[in-house]
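Worked Example 4.2. Consider the chain below.
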Amino acid sequence: MRPDRKTGIYLPDAIQQAENYADFLTGDLAADRMRVGILLETLAEVNSSVDLAEVMQNVVDKSITVTGAERAIIMLYDDENVLRVDLARDARGQDLGTAVQYSHSVAMRVARDGDGICLIDTANQDEISLGQSILDLKLLTVMCVPLRVKDRMIGLLYVDSKASSKEFTNRDLTLFKALASQVAVAVDNSRLLEHYVEKQRIQEGLNVARDIQRSLLPRGGMSFPGLDLFGVSVACEETSGDYFDYIRRPGGRLGMVVGDVSGHGIGAALVMSTARALLRALTATEAASAEIVTRLNSFLSEDVETGRFMTMFYGELDLANRRLNYVRAGHNEPVIYRHATDTFEELSEGGIALGMIDDFEFDAHGPVTLEPGDLLFMYTDGIIEAMNDRNEQFGIHRVRELLREHRDRAARDIVEELRSAAQAHIGTDERQDDLTLVIAKVT
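Applying the procedure from the previous section yields the following structure tokens:
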């Protein structure tokens, strides 16, 4: 803030930077001090709150105070860059609603040219096509200025009056411009803060959803006589559509499941959680594996939105004789590494993804006998399709090489080697897809 050379009055920087700011001063020391005082008070009030609604009300009320107008309207550009009335009030403090009538021709002219307009005695005004709204509203004076933050226009500030006792002057326009330049910053800051708070609220909700979802997944591994089992799931966003689980079944059987819902985020996570609950309920019955997946598909086809589906591998291992029966519903083929022969097999038999055809009948395949030292690797496509900066996928061949290289280590160690290698291949901490890896090693 610097003093004006003619009067010695300290002016806000907004006035110092405005065009023809000297027009703001009348030469009457008392009057000038009063106008500067009003402006400083106004700027202090509109900048004293971070609540957007409160800032808006202060803006329109103080616009009336500063100009002596009968009405004031603030218009802001929305997210689609459409100029809309945000708030309109009259000199009595009454809210006029967002459907209030005003001079659209004046507002559109200011929005188009970026310059303020001050119309005095509109009955004799010839410089601008006034439009029918001024005649219909019987407006005597109209003033409108842009709300600008740096080189970006965020809206308009508009006042008008029908009373013959109030005719706006060029000094009013300069004062109004000075007010608008500071008001724009206050409004923009409040909007940014509001968006930030909303983003934080959403983020907190996602964090809660993430924690709930994590609690639904097994924590690491399980150990049984002759079997070392470990799995992990890493989401590329806060929540995930990937799923894995271990389920004890009657008769010494162990259910092992890996699934992948199409898409990411909350929608996929909700489908995953629904599928988990249904599968848990179905496996608590005496139903065989094919019937379990068939009934699960029927439920999901009815409940899941069109266009969303879920792939799944569900295997049941008889822990006594290490025989595996499985149902594959459109999912990636699990890989078996045979320790004795140093070879690989894929469990490729299967049907369509869940949620696509409600009356599809799934079949179980097997049994496949697992021998000591064998590895059963179940996964989602996040590891196969992990992409580096040269658009090269990690691929199933790298998975096989790592399974062979670390075949004699514990299931947990093999999973961690696979995850670390995939992340190193990507080259950043960011992931394009959810990642789920499960190793069952026969000991």
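Residues 206-442 form a domain with the Phosphatase 2c; domain 1 fold (CATH 3.60.40.10). Residues 170-216 form the longest helix (47 residues). Compare this with Example 4.1 before moving on.
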